[in-house]
């Protein structure tokens, strides 16, 4: 076997494609193969492969049980599950229970015989290793991405799906679902169980730790499950509770300078791994290849730790797909990770540092070559668009590899080191590019400006030839770079001036050798090490040897007859001179020829010599030769690489095979001899690997026998007389040899030509962008036909995948005349008799008896007789086609006979009309064509090809029918396009189409498209209404603009006003003003929003804070007279003043604003909306001020203050009163523009009195709180204890007893009131309030009586009775203890009251209310009893109220305060 090897890249986008056994053996799925790698803390080594899958390996898992740890299982996209012995590397068993590609597999850590797998259709299969039985379940109809068996309970399996669902199933109960874990909203990439079988508390949020349905954490057994998803989160789940307990969001730790191709957009893959014995430590991948260790017992940023922090080069540079861990015998715990960067890394879990890195390859290895200057420096050209440079002599790191990808962007198919300049490496690519890399610098490569048209196959350094050799002494290069590509051209590049034009050496060859004919395309070239001679191989198998620098033809070797693939000169160091002129050549023939050209080179002939006999012939390979290398340590020792999958070492002089290497699982493409070890050779091939192997350790000495001859002999033995017509491709290329993973199945298929590269596509960007399932390989793998050389085990010997030769042949078309054709395949005697009969028919006057050409047994003779006989033959053929159901053939026969109408009629009846028949239908006349077109339209409609049907209607000028057809099938867009293109502009159908389409679009929610239809139909009003249906700010703005442009002024104003109100509610004052500014008729609403913005700015300290989106500079926060400020802003910004006229006239604006709606205040209206309504009344007040209408001004100010008070916002109302009347006098509303209110109307006077009373009411409570706080201002302070109950019960709308905003500083002295409190003690209002309270109490009693009556009628116990199933009735929620005491005291009297007595009382009170003046009911005062209590309390604590005022308060309490128990209780303390 091999010593060192670079394996193929592990498959991408698989949840579990790698695993480590307990003995430290790592298995990795790469393409169709599983590579086995021996892992230690210091190094790794590829020790074998498991070959047999026909599709990408999607999952791999070891059995972790003692005595069985060498058994492993794999899954594949081919739907198979395979059990392997990793020690003997043979297949044990194969299961084919899945019908779809398998996406995940796992060997149960609890049951040593249980393996669970899942496929892309959602089917879960349990495989029992010891019996071979299987059981299938279908828990969810979703695509499975991953699954994991519980390490604690054998029958519990977690399954992750593509849509983010995680399901826990019980495999012992036919896949019964135990829990559905919902939380992720994208693909589940990985699942990992906690290693401990309990759910000890992790550091979770309080809400996460709550038990579900009252079940505590200890009541049900379970363990934690970790999941990683594409939604960028890791979640920890409690399997006992069936819920998530922790969510970890990935940190963004992108490093600078990471070598990632910016042209490749990669997706996220989040893999999680829970190491054994670490209950609170979880490893996950991250965005750009980083690995993170999570400490689940911590919180915050200290929760995670990054791997490999000592150096950026330790981390992966692309996303990580798989992780697996193992504990070595020495106690060290290792973690192995695979990544999109095509590297496998091993980490020490104790230090979180990288132990070693194993590079992998993502494409065919097209070229490998050792540097002639840097000893041991191996360059690899790979099909994944990258170059690897491997320092093979490093002792510390056996895989010291650097990767180069910049400027390549295609498969690297050729490499050549500079002969003398260290680190200078030339490369050629699949797309014809030639460049030079300086591998010891970080600079991008130098690219030649001359591109080949096809793949570059060979690069060679050699002496310059004309015209490059004609340069000056200082400018002539020492070496030129020669490139040979698939188009057959060899170009000479100047390495110092790659930007210059490269020269084609064919011109020099023709001129020097006087050749006039076209040269054969070149396929390879090789310079002799001394630079004097160059050998060029051609497509026709000829090898031409030219003398430098003029390229004079010395000889032509005509030994090969197929394309030359490789040429190599023997080295000239340390070998006898007679060997220096040996030239080895390999072609698509399997024979290697070696020619001795010493005589030709040392004594050039006058005319070119022609050599037809080789010096040595090396036979043994069975497929084309792809590469060769002479040993630098031996004389005449050659190694060759072949498409038969082996590398062969030859002793050239003896023509003897020395050693044969069969370690690759595919064709070999390149080979080179180690420059330091004579026993070591390196090979690369189509199995994506590079392998180092020893000559002396190989079991075989000769290449294996060819398969084609063996297969042919076996086939002849089994079926010697098999007919060609029944021949099948049985086995394609025969079976593999019976050795277990030993001798390869050598290829016998004819090799492809040199001009063609294999059908591989290893571009990782393409694969990453197109993968949609979980089992997609990183490098896109070639088709099965390119892997004919795979080794297969004896238990899984299957035929090679080779395409059937009959499939490759072009399918023969069905005969139009099958009956007559079959008559020509009769026995020879009958065919000769037909010739005699036909001669008699043509030359005798009377035909033979019973012979009618074209009928009966002589049907085939109709083709050779007259036309009538031909028609008879056609009739018979038509009958045969009808019986066989080949109506298309019948149609063609009728066309040939000229019966076009019959053909069309038959095709119409059978529904077999097609475009061809319709194209020839005009030959039968317009009517026939028109009927055929209409019939074809009906046929197309049945096939739902409506557009094509409409086109055919147009062909017969039926435009309206075509439009109706499209409209009836709701193809409105196409129908409108047709009408506008073919019918007049004023066509009524166009408007109807637009209207119907708009209705459909509006129904589907496509409002903007529907609006376009309405606009096109001339319905601008409907267009604006449709856009406004979205009811968001952008839609309303657009709808208003559309309506304005279209001339719908009323609608535009309405929509603009709606939009502005929404913006104002969101505190976007500038946006609201801009919307209204576009409508000239909405000036008054701009004034309203101006006042609203001022009010919101001034009430910032009182109202709850809200973010202001935008505001005007003239509305800064602060306390000032709002009316003065509003008037100044109106004059300066909007030009509205006393003198303004026209649409800015004050009276017109006020009249327009009065029409604005102002609903009744309620506690359900949001505060921001309340302020808008309050500002509406303030706007009317300012306009009334400008008109000197004191009565209206007073009433609007009262409404502005009453709105927040009635809506339950007492503090807002109090602060608004302070802004309006900072001095406490409601008659003075302005000082800047002196204004004193003198209302003349009774209503206005009542409004002023009510407004003044409420201003005094607020000041009274301020004085009360100051006295309660010891003379200090309080904020949100409690009510004084003496009147606390009454304050709670009687404060209007929640009253001042609630918490609110700040209270203005203390003004004045505490021992006296600075306002006239007598206004608060109005006896008329006290009487009204008492009557109103009495009515309310009677209404409550009546409601209670009705409720009791309904309960008695329904058989329910009364509230006072006890029930077995519930507690006794309790008082109403709002009822205080005092009320309950009162209820108990007066229960006897209440029991005596009847419905009639209560109704009589209600009538009396309602009459009293009706007799009261309307002004008292319209403009109420604060509660008089409440104010009396507060004044008396102030009198107890200070001498603020006068004696007369206190006496008046006591009188009012005696007269109107006896009805409320709480008032009585407070009165006893104050009146005693």
Structure description:
- This protein is an alpha+beta fold.
- It contains 37 helices and 59 strands.
- The strands form 15 sheets. The protein has a 5-stranded mixed β-sheet with strand order 42-43-44-45-49, with helices on one face. A 4-stranded antiparallel β-sheet has the order 1-57-56-55, with no helix packed on it. A 4-stranded antiparallel β-sheet has the order 2-3-4-5, with no helix packed on it.
- A hairpin with a 4-residue loop joins strand 39 and strand 40.
- Helix 22 packs across helix 23.
- The radius of gyration is 49 Å and the shape is elongated.
- About 13% of the residues have low confidence.
Summed up:
The chain has 1472 residues and is an alpha+beta fold.
Q: Helix proportion of residues, in percent?
A: 25-40%
Please work out how many helical segments DSSP would assign.
37
Oligomer: single chain
Give the uncertain stretches in residue-range form: 206-219, 256-265, 712-808, 1271-1311, 1358-1391
Which structural class best describes the helix and strand composition? alpha+beta
Strand content: 15-25%
Mean pLDDT: 81
Distance between the termini: 114 Å
Shape: elongated
The gyration radius over C-alpha positions equals 49 Å
| Strands side by side in the biggest sheet | 42-43-44-45-49
**How many strands, what sense, and barrel or not for the largest sheet?**
5 strands, mixed
Secondary structure: number of strands: 59
């Amino acid at each position: 076997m091999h010593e060192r090897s670079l394996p193929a890249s592990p498959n991408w986008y698989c949840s579990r494609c790698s695993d480590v056994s307990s003995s430290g053996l790592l298995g990795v799925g790469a393409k169709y193969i599983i590579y086995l790698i021996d892992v230690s803390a210091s190094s790794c080594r590829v020790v074998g492969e498991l070959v047999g899958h026909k599709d990408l390996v999607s999952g791999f898992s070891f059995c972790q049980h003692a005595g069985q740890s060498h058994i492993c299982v794999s899954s594949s996209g081919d739907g198979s599950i395979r059990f392997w012995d990793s020690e003997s590397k043979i297949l044990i068993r194969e299961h084919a229970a899945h019908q779809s590609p398998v996406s995940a597999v796992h060997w149960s850590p609890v049951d040593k015989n249980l393996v669970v797998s899942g496929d892309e259709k959602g089917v879960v299969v349990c495989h029992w290793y010891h019996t071979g039985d299987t059981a299938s379940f279908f828990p969810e109809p979703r695509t499975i991405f991953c699954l994991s068996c519980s390490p604690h309970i054998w029958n519990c399996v977690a399954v992750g799906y593509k849509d983010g669902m995680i399901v826990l199933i019980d495999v012992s109960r036919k896949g019964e679902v135990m829990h559905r874990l919902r939380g992720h909203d994208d693909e589940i990439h990985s699942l990992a169980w906690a290693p401990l079988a309990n759910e000890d508390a992790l550091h979770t949020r309080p809400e996460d730790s709550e038990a579900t349905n009252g079940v505590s954490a200890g009541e049900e057994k379970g363990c934690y499950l970790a999941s990683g998803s594409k939604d960028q989160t890791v979640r920890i789940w409690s399997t006992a509770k069936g819920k998530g307990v922790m969510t970890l969001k990935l940190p963004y730790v992108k490093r600078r300078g990471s070598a990632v191709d910016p042209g490749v957009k990669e997706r996220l893959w989040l893999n999680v791994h829970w190491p054994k014995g670490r209950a609170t430590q979880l490893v996950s991948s991250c965005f750009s290849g980083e690995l993170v260790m999570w400490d689940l017992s911590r919180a915050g940023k200290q929760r995670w730790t990054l791997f490999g922090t000592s150096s950026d080069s330790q981390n992966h540079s692309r996303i990580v797909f798989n992780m697996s861990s193992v504990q070595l015998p020495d106690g060290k715990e290792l973690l192995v990770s695979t990544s999109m960067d095509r590297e496998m890394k091993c980490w020490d879990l104790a230090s979180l540092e990288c132990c070693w890195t194993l590079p992998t390859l993502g494409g065919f290895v097209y070229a490998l070559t050792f540097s002639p200057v840097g000893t041991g420096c191996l360059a690899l050209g790979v099909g994944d668009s990258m170059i690897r440079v491997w320092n093979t002599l490093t002792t510390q790191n056996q895989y010291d590899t650097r990767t180069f990808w910049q400027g390549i962007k295609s498969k690297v198919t050729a490499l050549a080191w500079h002969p003398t300049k260290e680190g200078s490496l030339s490369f050629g690519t699949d797309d014809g590019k030639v460049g030079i890399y300086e591998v010891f610098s970080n600079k991008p490569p130098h690219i030649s400006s001359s591109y080949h048209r096809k793949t570059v196959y060979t690069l060679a350094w050699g002496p310059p030839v004309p015209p490059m050799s004609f340069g000056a002494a200082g400018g002539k290069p020492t070496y030129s770079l020669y490139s040979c590509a698939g188009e057959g051209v060899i170009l000479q590049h100047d390495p110092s001036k790659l930007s210059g034009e490269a020269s084609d050496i064919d011109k020099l060859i023709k001129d020097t050798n006087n050749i006039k004919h076209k040269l054969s395309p070149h396929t390879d070239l090789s310079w002799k090490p001394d630079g004097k001679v160059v050998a060029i191989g051609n497509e026709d198998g000829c090898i031409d040897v030219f003398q430098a620098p003029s390229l004079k033809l010395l000889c032509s070797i005509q030994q090969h007859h197929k394309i030359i693939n490789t040429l190599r000169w023997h080295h000239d160091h340390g070998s006898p001179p007679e060997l220096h002129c040996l030239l080895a050549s390999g072609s698509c023939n399997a024979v290697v020829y070696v020619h001795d050209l010493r005589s030709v080179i040392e004594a050039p002939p006058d005319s070119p010599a022609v050599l037809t006999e080789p010096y040595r012939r090396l036979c043994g390979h069975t497929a084309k030769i792809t590469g060769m290398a002479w040993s630098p340590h031996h004389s005449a020792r050659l190694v060759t690489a072949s498409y038969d999958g082996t590398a062969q070492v030859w002793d050239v002089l003896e023509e003897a095979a020395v050693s044969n290497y069969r370690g690759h699982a595919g064709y070999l493409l390149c080979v080179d001899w180690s420059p330091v070890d004579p026993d070591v050779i390196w090979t690369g091939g189509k199995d994506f690997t590079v392998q180092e192997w020893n000559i002396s350790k190989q079991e075989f000495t000769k290449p294996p026998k060819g398969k084609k001859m063996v297969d042919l002999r076996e086939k002849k033995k089994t079926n010697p007389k098999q007919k060609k017509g029944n021949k099948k491709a049985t086995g394609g290329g025969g079976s593999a040899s019976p050795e277990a993973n030993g001798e390869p199945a050598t290829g016998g298929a004819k090799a492809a030509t040199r001009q063609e590269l294999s059908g591989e596509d290893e571009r990782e960007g393409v694969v990453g962008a197109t993968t949609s399932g979980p089992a997609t390989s990183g490098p896109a793998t070639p088709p099965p036909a390119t892997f004919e050389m795979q080794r297969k085990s004896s238990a899984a010997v299957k035929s090679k995948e080779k395409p059937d030769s009959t499939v490759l042949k072009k399918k023969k078309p069905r005969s139009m005349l099958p009956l007559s054709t079959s008559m020509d395949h009769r026995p020879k005697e009958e065919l000769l008799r037909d010739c005699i009969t036909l001669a008699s028919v043509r030359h005798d006057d009377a035909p033979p008896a019973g012979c009618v050409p074209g009928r009966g047994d002589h049907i085939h003779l109709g083709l050779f007789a007259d036309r009538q006989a031909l028609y008879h033959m056609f009739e018979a053929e038509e009958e045969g086609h009808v019986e066989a159901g080949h109506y298309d053939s019948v149609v063609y026969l009728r066309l040939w006979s000229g019966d076009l109408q019959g053909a069309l009629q038959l095709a119409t009846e059978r529904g077999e009309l097609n475009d061809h028949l319709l194209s020839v239908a005009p030959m039968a006349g317009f009517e026939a064509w028109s009927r055929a077109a209409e019939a074809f339209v009906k046929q197309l409609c049945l096939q739902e090809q409506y557009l094509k049907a409409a086109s055919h209607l147009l062909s017969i000028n039926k435009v309206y029918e075509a439009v109706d057809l499209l409209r009836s099938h709701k193809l409105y867009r196409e129908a409108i396009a047709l009408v506008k293109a073919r019918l007049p502009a004023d066509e009524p159908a166009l408007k109807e189409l637009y209207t119907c389409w708009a209705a459909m679009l509006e129904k589907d929610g496509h409002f903007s498209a529907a609006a376009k239809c309405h606009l096109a139909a001339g319905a601008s009003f409907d267009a604006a209404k449709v856009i406004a249906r979205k009811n968001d700010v952008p839609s309303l703005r657009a709808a208003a603009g559309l309506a304005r442009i279209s001339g719908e002024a009323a609608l535009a104003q309405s929509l603009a006003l709606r939009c502005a109100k929404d913006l104002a509610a969101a505190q976007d004052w500038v946006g609201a003003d801009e919307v209204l500014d576009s409508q000239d008729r909405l000036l008054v609403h701009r004034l309203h929003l101006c006042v609203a913005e001022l009010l919101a700015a001034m009430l910032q300290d009182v109202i709850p804070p809200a973010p202001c989106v935008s505001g005007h500079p003239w509305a800064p926060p602060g306390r000032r007279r709002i009316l003065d400020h509003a008037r100044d802003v109106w004059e300066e910004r909007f030009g509205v003043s006393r003198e303004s006229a026209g649409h800015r006239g004050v009276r017109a604006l006020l009249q327009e604003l009065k029409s604005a709606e102002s609903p009744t205040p309620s506690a359900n209206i949001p505060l921001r909306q309340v302020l808008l309504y309050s500002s509406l009344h303030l706007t009317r007040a300012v306009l009334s001020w400008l008109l000197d209408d004191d009565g209206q001004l007073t009433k609007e100010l009262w409404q502005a203050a009453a709105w927040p008070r009635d809506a339950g916002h007492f503090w807002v109302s109090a602060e608004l009163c302070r802004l309006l009347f900072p001095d406490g006098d409601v008659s003075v509303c302005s000082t800047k523009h002196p204004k004193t209110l003198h209302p003349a109307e009774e209503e206005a006077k009542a409004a002023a009195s009510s407004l003044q009373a409420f201003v005094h009411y607020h000041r009274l409570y301020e004085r009360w709180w100051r006295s309660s706080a010891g003379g200090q201002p309080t904020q949100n302070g409690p009510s004084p204890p003496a009147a606390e109950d009454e304050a709670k019960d009687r404060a209007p709308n929640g009253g001042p007893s609630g918490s609110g905003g700040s209270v203005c500083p203390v003004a004045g002295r505490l021992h006296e009131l600075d306002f006239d409190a007598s206004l608060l003690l109005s006896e008329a209002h006290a009487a009204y309030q008492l009557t109103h309270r009495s009515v309310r109490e009677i209404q409550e009693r009546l409601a209670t009586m009705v409720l009791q009556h309904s309960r008695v009628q329904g058989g329910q116990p009364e509230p006072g009775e006890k029930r077995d199933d519930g507690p006794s009735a309790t008082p109403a929620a709002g009822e205080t203890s005092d009320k309950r005491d009162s209820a108990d005291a007066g229960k006897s009297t209440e029991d005596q009251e009847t419905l009639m007595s209560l109704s009589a009382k209600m009538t009396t009170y309602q009459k009293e209310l009706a007799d009261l003046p309307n002004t008292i009911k319209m403009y109420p005062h604060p509660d008089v009893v409440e104010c009396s209590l507060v004044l008396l309390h102030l009198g107890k604590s200070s001498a603020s109220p006068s004696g007369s005022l206190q006496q008046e308060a006591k009188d009012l309490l005696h007269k109107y305060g006896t009805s409320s128990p709480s008032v009585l209780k407070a009165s006893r303390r104050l009146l005693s």
